[in-house]
Design goal:
It is found in: Nucleus. Keywords: DNA damage, DNA repair, DNA-binding, Nucleus, Repeat, Ubl conjugation pathway, WD repeat. Pfam families: WD40. By secondary structure, this protein is mainly β. It has helices at 27-30, 69-77, 83-98, 422-426; strands at 15-17, 101-107, 114-119, 126-131, 136-140, 148-150, 159-164, 171-176, 180-185, 190-196, 204-210, 215-220, 224-229, 234-239, 245-250, 257-262, 266-271, 283-286, 291-296, 302-307, 311-316, 319-328, 343-344, 350-354, 372-376, 382-386, 397-400, 407-411, 414-420. The longest helix has 16 residues, at 83-98.
Length: 427
């Protein structure tokens, strides 16, 4: 298939720069009648919405730090401190720094909502974002140069998944409702089409890439999962779910280990070396509602799933078929909202997810805010909530950069960049 050229648009990108030392009002100042719900840096006192496998989740308060990070490092150097305690000290220090995080840049480049995010693997200030109209933005917010913008086809061109090419980071993979999974560059050239559908009733909803095995995996809206090599050769194409495959993820440490999530209310785990048909999965993890995402932790030892209503689950490699813990959390699905997906922090055992307050949620309180929630991956406790009164919409996508110090969020048409407030840090 001949490469296609996608024209660039001349649309002006709206980028808002905010001084880092500008103080944002806290949720308590904004909503005086609200209960102690969203004070930045502190956990909520809500009760659990359903039975939880983690003891003490109902309190959801941050445990006091037992020692400073300096003391933890000193004890570790002397051989008196274990590595887990050192890691916990580092994580507590980072959670404390989250209290000073503010939105310092904002952009609204699209005429339809943002649907996917991907950080550049080696440039910590470079972000790729796809939209429901098929538009794609490459934004290096660390410099003042104009971002690269690739115009999509409009309605029906939604970008459902994006990954930078690990073998050439000037290129990226994209799956779309246009009916393709493709490799292209940021000049708008389509370099290779990996999958394409012959009908408008089938499109691709997710993708992942492995640089070690040099494979591309993608899932479609009727339950099929396709595995290809980097040259575009199809290795197999099987119907692994009864309904749409919303997410596919390769384990970062064992890239032959694949997780697939579906609206058929299951997450399945596969060994790519042993796939023979739809019944050859290693584990099937049933959920009570359709599932938006299934993400492996950076060390590959845990799996994080997000359903379409009010539950986040964590599974462990020690027992994949039984959840280690359940976190009640409101993030219900809505047709005109980009599905909310929880993700891992790249360095710490922390979970980040956007909140969509639900009046039917038992712990819902008056004036509950649409925050970005950070949970501890071990205990399931709320560690911190981020909120900006000038960006109070529903934040569907959240992802930290590979360095773990900057958070990108997608809120409707807007892209938000959160970073540490330098003035707050000095204080």
């Amino acid at each position: 298939m001949a490469p296609r050229k996608r024209p660039e648009t001349r649309k002006t990108l709206e980028v808002v720069l905010r001084p880092r030392n500008k103080r944002s009002r806290s949720p308590r100042e904004l909503e005086p009648e609200a209960k102690k719900l969203c004070v930045k840096g502190s956990g909520s006192s809500r009760k659990s919405d359903s039975s939880c496998l983690w003891e003490g989740l109902a309190s959801r308060r941050v445990p006091p730090s037992c020692c400073s990070i300096i003391r933890a490092l000193h004890q570790h150097k002397l051989g008196k401190g274990a590595w887990p305690s050192l890691q916990q000290g580092l994580q507590q220090s980072f959670v404390h720094s989250l209290e000073t995080y503010r939105i310092f840049q904002k952009a609204a480049p699209f005429d339809r909502r943002a649907t996917s995010l991907a950080w550049h693997p080696t440039h910590p200030t470079t972000l790729a974002v796809g939209s429901k109209g098929g538009d794609i933005l490459l934004w290096n917010f660390g410099i003042k140069d104009k971002p690269t913008f690739i115009k999509g086809i409009g309605a029906g061109g939604s970008i459902t998944g994006m990954k930078f090419n690990p073998l050439n980071t000037d290129q990226f993979f994209a799956s779309s409702m246009e009916g393709t999974t493709r490799l292209q560059d940021f000049k708008g050239n389509t370099l290779r089409v990996f999958t394409t559908s012959d009908t408008c009733n089938i499109w691709f909803c997710s993708l992942d890439v492995s640089d070690k095995s040099r494979v591309v995996v993608t899932g479609d809206n009727v339950g099929n999962v396709v595995l290809l090599n980097m040259d575009g050769k199809e290795l197999w194409n099987l119907r692994m779910h009864k309904k749409k495959v919303t997410h596919v993820a390769l384990n970062p440490c064992c890239d032959w280990f694949l997780a697939t999530a579906s609206v058929d209310q299951t997450v399945k785990i596969w060994d790519l070396r042993q796939v023979r048909g739809k019944a050859s999965f290693l584990y099937s993890l049933p959920h009570r509602h359709p599932v938006n995402a299934a993400c492996f932790s950076p060390d590959g030892a845990r799996l994080l799933t997000t359903d379409q209503k009010s539950e986040i689950r964590v599974y462990s490699a020690s027992q994949w078929d039984c959840p280690l813990g359940l976190i009640p959390h409101p993030h219900r699905h809505f047709q005109h909202l980009t599905p909310i997906k929880a993700t891992w922090h790249p360095r710490y055992n922390l979970i980040v997810v956007g909140r969509y307050p639900d009046p039917n949620f038992k712990s819902c309180t008056p004036y509950e805010l649409r925050t970005v929630d950070v949970f501890d991956g071990n205990s399931g406790k709320m560690m911190c909530q981020l909120y900006d009164p000038e960006s109070s919409g529903i934040i569907s996508l959240n992802e930290f950069n590979p360095m773990g110090d900057t958070l990108a969020s997608a809120m409707g048409y807007h892209i938000l960049i959160w970073s540490q407030d330098e003035a707050g840090t000095r204080k």
